[in-house]
Structure formats: structure tokens, C-alpha cells
Design a protein that fits this description.
Mean pLDDT: 88
Largest sheet: 12 strands, mixed
Radius of gyration: 19 Å
Oligomer: single chain
Structural class: alpha/beta
Amino acid sequence: MESKLMDPFGRIHDYLRISVTDRCNLRCVYCMPEEGMQFEPTERILSYEEITSIVKALAPLGIRKLRLTGGEPLVRKGLDQLIAMLSAIPGIEDIALTTNGIYLAAYADLLKAAGLTRVNISLDSLKPERFASITRGGKVQRVLDGIKASQKAGFHPIKLNVVLMKGVNDDEVEDFLRMTLDEPIHIRFIEYMPIGDSGDGWRSGYLPLEHVLETCGASWNYESCGEVYGNGPADSYRIKGAAGTFGLIHPVSSHFCGNCNRLRLTADGNIKPCLYWSDEFNVRPLVGDDKAVQGLFYKALGAKPETHDMVKALNGQQIDGTPTLRNMSQIGG
């Protein structure tokens, strides 16, 4: 094996998040503006063959886990073909998908057969009208149908990602927790992050995740539990006797940069060492030259900072670099 993907702070990177598109069938309030988005033309988006070539170059360096993101990955045709290509690469052990779930009922079986390992489904409200407001038009029942289809297809674990927003969905915490009682569902509450040109408005929606533990403790006894497979940065808990778990992901109030093991590849072929900062390295011109691809990933890792400054941004303090102006949908969630 070649030298591992280690950054200047000794962090080993074995996880690549791959955005396959910047397009989406929803317009979630924290992900992209309601209108005016300029999407990349098709010719600027990495082909499935280019993505596969990049991963083949990285597998000998220790990349083991992949996550396909967007935008919404399932708006791109033939995603199962990419999954089959990636799952055939020696060394790749885990391929996960982050999706809004709208198309999942139709594709769950096909994705599973192609080699997809796990699914993370975004679900920020269980109330139809509120869900439609947050997503600007989405139908929550389609996501719930997608969850059932994923269970039937045999995906495990199934994780639901809930971006918690003050005054928007913070009154639904108990409803989400109830979902874990009888089903092996893993709810992950995520702090609202200042990604993209969000201005200062995000501060009014930011809510520390202690709110989840307070809400849970008022109705149930809960305990800290072991890591759910692929858990990443979540602190995991279980209501005593429950079939599922819930986790807290707090990138702002208690960042997990010290354990970061991930790199990002945008749909237009840029390596992002850190989600928050603007640094990007365009790998697309090098595709097909494995040594050059590997060299650029090493260069990107060399530029990876020790931490981000989201908490400074929250507190209105001066930050030490240039945050990205790309929306989450353009980077890959």
C-alpha cells in the first residue's frame, strides 16, 4: 500500500464524500436559495467513469468508505451503475447514500442490489405542511414511504438526519425520538451550520443540541450507547429498551475536527479538504493519471486546517480564513 492519506495534524483519512450532482428536487431553506441557483452544465459534472477512476487511485492510499451525496443523488440517472462500479474496486468496504428520500421508494431495491451499504435520509419535520415549508414543496409521505422501502430492502442501519432549527422544528424532538422506540431507526440531530452565503440569519435559527437531551429526559430514561456502524461524529444515546438510537452531531458548539477522517469531492471535480473553508483543488484535469491524482489529494491534505471557525461565526467574532460561499448543495452534504 502507498503512504496513507495523513494531514499535517496526524489525522488519517479513509473516507471520501462524493457529490454526484449539484441539482436537487427540493429547495431546503438551509441548503440552497428558493430561486436564482446557477447549476453546473452537464459537461462540467464528473462522469461516473471519472469518479470511479479517482476512487481507484485513492483505494491504495487507504480510502475505504464512500458516501454519495448531492444535491440529491437520485436525480441523476443510473446511480446504481456508479454504485456497482465503485463496489467492484478492491479495498472499498462501505458505500453509503445521503438522500432526501423522495425517490427512495422507487429505487431502494435496485440500489441495494448494486452494492449500496447504507442510507441516510434527510427528514426535518414529520408535519406535512411544515415539511413542505422547510423543503419548499416536498411531500413528507414520500420520504416515509422511502424509509419503509429501505427497511424492506434490508438496509442497516437506517439513519434519519434532522437539522434542528430554533422556532422551526424544535417542538418535534419528542416525535422523532418516539420513532426509535419500536423500530431500529437511528435519528441524528444536527446543528444548523453557516455554510455558503448564509449571512447572519442562521444565528437566529441555531439551537444547541442540549435541547434534545432535555426533551428526552423529561419523558424517558436514556443512556449513552456504543457507536452505531458508520456513526462518524455523532454522540449516540438510546432510550432504555428502545429498538433504535438517537445521536447528536454538533459541528458548531463542540466541533469534532480533531477526529476528522473525511475529504470531499464536489460534482464539478474539486477536492475540498474542509467543508467550512473555501480551499478547493481541481482534480478533474488529472483523471486517468493515478499518480497525479494521488499527488493532488496529498496537496489538498497538506492545506487542511486544524479546525474551522463556526463557533466564532456564531458569536460574531473575527475568523481567521475565508469561509466557502458555495451552498451546501454545491459542495455535497
